[in-house]
């Protein structure tokens, strides 16, 4: 990987060490440095805009970030945000809609994202699909709207062809917002993100050999939700360099499957009960670190189509149960996880539908499972903490007996 | 297999019609109960009951005799008709369970399996019925094929995944990109390709090929059926409206579950004649029509009668609904001369697969065409794709169409999410505002 990647065309040429490294370094691992996460993002966005970059707020989960990067557009992901809704507009969605959808509506319609130039709605689920039309069509968002529809279901020729056409359409839509996406810029962006994916995958696959707390690791991974990719890669490389040859984590290894590591204090509570995330199947993190071939397909769109079907089976893409369960088994075996935590948002159909199969599957294999339904609270509710504690005790006792 | 086929044909051709005939004789002497605030009952209702009873009766003997597919309501079923599939509509079955108050026991069976109460009650009902083997229709045939289209929601994909896992049979998916304005060429191409994939899977299951003429014919029938249904609905432009929106919910079963068959179309021809007659004679769905309303979203199946009565007693009637209308919209697009591409376009443009601007435009045009004074938007806890946007739609509809509009919190199937007292109070207050 070349140290100086220039993506996004000459106007947006950027040299990591010379320019943004101080910011990245300030963010690295310790994270906040006196800023709230929101404040940190805002400062970063402003700094990026001062460089002439456009900024797009992106709703979960899967989208071709490479195309945005190639156009020199900073993507800032909006997983809620967590905590109570920021604006009464959240009430435009019924209370039986998940907190991710309601909070995103409150945030966007309440003017909290006015800093950005556009919003991107990937068609993740019925809720985000609904938001993708609610906000622009019935009010609350007047800036440009981008949409990306990824095919649902298994890897099929028809789905591949559609994905390719949709990627090309999306590239021209992004081009209208930020200037044409050239093939060269896209190839560079694809290579850059492949490097990021590999680094993220390495950190997650060799998690036990990394001397970082879960909180620090996930703060790092989740900064990828808003950092310019080269800033993020710089941080990731430093973390990869810290991987030890042998495991250093001594806690209770758990596999976590779910949507997004929110509230982040969940990770602190895991640490308190002596556990750590040995294997990650959160949609926000583990499912977005697909294996990338080396070399990548020469055509950048081909590479993106490959990536579209290469990732871990994700509920939001309508992945088959068999594939998903087999993937979880593989994660569990590879990581030595002794129990599984299913951490799902309330009212989230994609995640909730798989729970009975997961329960049955793990039950047949004698693997302990804890299901935690959360609602994007700022803090993990006391009852959830108690359940987590009891679960960890039970898994520890089993380990001791074994 | 042969014995099963003989049994199936015997039920279809002899036992079923005989049972229908016997039931007709029995009901002849029965005294009709007082219609209350409603107009005279539709004569066609009896035929509807017979048609559906026969359909479910045949279903009991279908597996092993003919190929069986379980199908989502928005799936282009025309491609299955030429192969002789018996199509089961779990959504229709769940609606029937809800209307017969059999749903709570079934959803509880699903919940015991770990399905969350926050999931669509149709899905829970079906999964509970499969798990427990219970159904008010006696028995549902085991599927050989599962056919799912995401044009109504993505929930159906997760639901059918669970069915595929349970039955270990192929699942075909027709993934329909969401439409903003008009479907884009690559969307249509994608759906056409998937329809061909689905047809190939169905051919493998049926062990024979789809003859192009037979497909054209099924497409023609589907088009005619949806147009007939649309014509039946359009009779309600008359004042008084010859039937109520609640009647329509019951009478839409054939266009959902028997679309693309002559039985469906024959039934709607008869219903249309009857409705036209009622219009000519000035017979209304309710005795005294005072205020005409629009309904949005699925019905509250388990409370149809109660809600209809509450409204009719005060002269209120639903004359149209976005839900019943959904099965009439695609008629003009379906083209027997171009079955694949026209089906792709038609099934992509259904209300739940379109932007909210289009939905608002549709609601406004229904208000205008049916001279509606009020609207009830059923905020359906079980159906997010239908319910998202309603809070704004209510406001926009009031402002732009000048109709009073109410949001009614309920669930299309699960009575546990329903507070009858609260709903009655809200509806009464809503009606009083018209005085
Ligand atoms: S939490 Fe689930 S239901 Fe909500 S927006 Fe995300 S994927 Fe959709
Ligand atoms: S979520 Fe709505 S559209 Fe989907 S199956 Fe349930 S009721 Fe039908």
Précis, in short:
With 402 residues, chain A is of the alpha/beta class.
Task: Name some characteristics of this structure.
A: 402 residues; alpha/beta; 15 helices; 8 strands; 12% strand; disordered N terminus; B: 435 residues; four-stranded parallel β-sheet; 54% helix; 10% strand
Quaternary assembly: heterodimer
The proportion of residues in beta strands of chain B is: 5-15%
The overall average pLDDT of chain A, rounded, is 91
Distance between the termini of chain A: 45 Å
Low-confidence stretches of chain B: none
Biggest interface, residues from each chain: A-B, 52 and 48 residues
Sheet with most strands of chain B: 4 strands, parallel
What percent of residues of chain A are in strands? 5-15%
Structural overview:
Chain A is of the alpha/beta class and 402 residues long. Chain A has helices at 21-27, 37-50, 65-70, 99-109, 126-138, 157-178, 183-205, 214-223, 229-241, 265-272, 300-310, 321-335, 349-352, 355-364, 382-401, and strands spanning 54-58, 73-77, 118-122, 145-148, 252-258, 275-282, 339-345, 369-374. In chain A, helix 7 (183-205) runs parallel beside helix 11 (300-310). The longest helix of chain A is centred in the middle third of the chain and has 23 residues, at 183-205. With 435 residues, chain B is an alpha/beta fold. Helices cover 54% and strands 10% of the residues of chain B. In chain B, the strands form 2 sheets. Chain B has a 4-stranded parallel beta sheet with strand order 2-1-3-4, sandwiched between helices. The longest helix of chain B is centred in the N-terminal third of the chain and has 27 residues, at 2-28. Chain B is globular and about 65 Å long. Chain B starts with a helix and ends with a helix. In chain B, 54% of the residues are buried. The mean pLDDT of chain B is 95. The interface between A and B is large, with 52 and 48 residues. The complex binds iron/sulfur cluster (2 copies). One iron/sulfur cluster binds next to helix 6 and helix 16 of chain B.
């Amino acid at each position: 990987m070349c140290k100086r990647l220039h993506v996004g065309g000459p106007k947006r040429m950027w040299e990591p060490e010379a320019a943004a490294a101080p910011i990245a370094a300030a963010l690295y691992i310790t994270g906040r440095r006196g800023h709230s996460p929101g404040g940190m993002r805002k400062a970063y966005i402003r700094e990026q805009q001062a460089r002439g970059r456009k900024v797009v707020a992106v709703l979960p989960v899967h989208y071709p970030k490479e195309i945005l990067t190639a156009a020199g557009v900073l993507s800032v992901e909006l997983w809620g945000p967590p905590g109570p809704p920021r604006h009464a507009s959240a009430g435009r969605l019924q209370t039986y809609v998940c907190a991710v959808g309601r909070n995103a509506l409150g945030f966007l319609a309440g003017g909290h994202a006015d800093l950005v130039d556009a919003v991107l709605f990937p068609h993740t689920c019925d809720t985000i699909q609904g938001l993708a039309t609610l906000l622009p069509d019935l009010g609350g968002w007047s800036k440009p709207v981008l949409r990306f529809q990824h095919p649902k279901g298994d890897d099929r020729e028809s789905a591949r062809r559609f994905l390719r056409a949709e990627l090309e359409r999306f590239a021209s839509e992004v081009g209208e917002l930020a200037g044409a996406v050239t093939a060269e810029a896209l190839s560079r962006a694809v290579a850059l993100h492949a490097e990021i994916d590999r680094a993220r995958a390495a950190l997650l696959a060799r998690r036990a050999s990394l001397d970082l707390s879960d909180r620090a690791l996930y703060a790092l991974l989740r900064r990828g939700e808003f950092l310019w990719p080269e800033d993020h890669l710089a941080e990731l490389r430093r973390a990869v360099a810290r991987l030890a040859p042998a495991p250093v984590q001594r806690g209770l290894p758990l596999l976590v499957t779910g949507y997004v590591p929110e509230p982040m204090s969940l990770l602190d509570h895991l640490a308190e009960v002596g556990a750590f995330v040995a294997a990650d199947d959160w949609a926000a993190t583990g499912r977005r670190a697909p294996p990338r071939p080396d070399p990548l397909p020469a055509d950048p769109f081909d590479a993106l189509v490959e990536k579209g079907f290469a990732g871990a089976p994700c509920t939001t893409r309508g992945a088959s149960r068999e594939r998903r369960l087999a993937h979880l088994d593989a994660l569990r075996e590879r990581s030595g996880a002794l129990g599984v935590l299913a951490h799902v948002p309330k009212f989230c159909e994609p995640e909730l539908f798989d729970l009975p199969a997961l329960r049955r599957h793990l039950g047949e294999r004698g693997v302990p499972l804890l299901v935690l339904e959360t609602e994007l609270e700022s803090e993990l509710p006391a009852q959830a903490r108690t359940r987590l504690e009891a679960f960890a005790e039970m898994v520890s006792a089993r380990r001791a007996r074994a | 297999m042969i014995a099963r086929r003989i049994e199936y044909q015997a039920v279809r051709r002899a036992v079923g019609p005989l049972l229908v005939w016997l039931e007709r004789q029995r009901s002849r002497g029965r005294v009709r109960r007082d219609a209350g605030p409603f107009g005279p009952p539709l004569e066609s209702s009896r035929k509807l009951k017979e048609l559906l009873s026969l359909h479910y009766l045949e279903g009991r003997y279908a597996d092993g005799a003919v190929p069986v597919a379980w199908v989502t309501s928005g799936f282009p079923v025309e491609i299955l008709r030429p192969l002789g599939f018996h199509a089961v509509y779990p959504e229709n079955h769940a609606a029937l369970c809800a209307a017969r108050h059999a749903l709570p026991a079934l959803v509880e069976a699903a919940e015991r399996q770990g399905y969350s109460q926050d999931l669509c009650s149709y899905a829970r009902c079906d999964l509970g019925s499969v798990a427990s083997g219970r159904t008010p229709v006696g028995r549902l045939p085991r599927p050989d094929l599962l056919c799912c289209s995401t044009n109504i929601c993505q929930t159906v994909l997760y639901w059918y995944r669970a069915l595929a896992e349970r039955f270990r049979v192929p699942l075909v998916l027709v993934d329909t990109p969401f439409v903003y304005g008009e479907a884009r060429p690559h969307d249509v191409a994608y759906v056409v390709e998937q329809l061909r994939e689905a047809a190939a899977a169905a051919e493998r299951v049926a062990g024979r090929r789809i003859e192009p003429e037979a497909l054209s014919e099924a497409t023609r029938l589907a088009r005619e059926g949806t147009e007939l249904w649309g014509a039946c609905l359009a009779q309600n432009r008359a004042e008084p409206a010859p039937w109520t929106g609640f009647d329509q919910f019951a009478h839409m079963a054939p266009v959902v579950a028997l679309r693309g068959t002559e039985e469906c179309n024959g039934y709607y021809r008869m219903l249309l004649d009857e409705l036209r007659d009622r219009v000519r004679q000035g017979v209304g769905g309710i005795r005294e029509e005072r205020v005409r309303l629009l309904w949005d979203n699925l019905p509250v199946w388990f409370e149809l009668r109660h809600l209809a009565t509450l409204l009719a007693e005060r002269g209120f009637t639903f004359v149209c609904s976005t839900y019943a209308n959904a099965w009439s919209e695609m008629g003009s697009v379906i083209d027997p001369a171009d079955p694949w591409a026209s089906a792709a376009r038609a099934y992509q443009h259904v209300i739940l697969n379109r932007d909210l601007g289009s939905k608002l435009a549709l609601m406004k045009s229904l208000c205008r065409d049916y001279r509606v004074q009020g609207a009830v938007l059923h905020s359906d806890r079980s159906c997010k794709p239908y319910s998202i946007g309603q809070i704004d739609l209510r406001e926009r509809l009031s402002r732009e169409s000048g109709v009073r509009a109410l949001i009614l919190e309920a669930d299309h199937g699960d009575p546990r999410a329903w507070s009858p007292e609260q709903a009655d109070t809200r509806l009464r207050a809503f009606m009083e505002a018209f005085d």
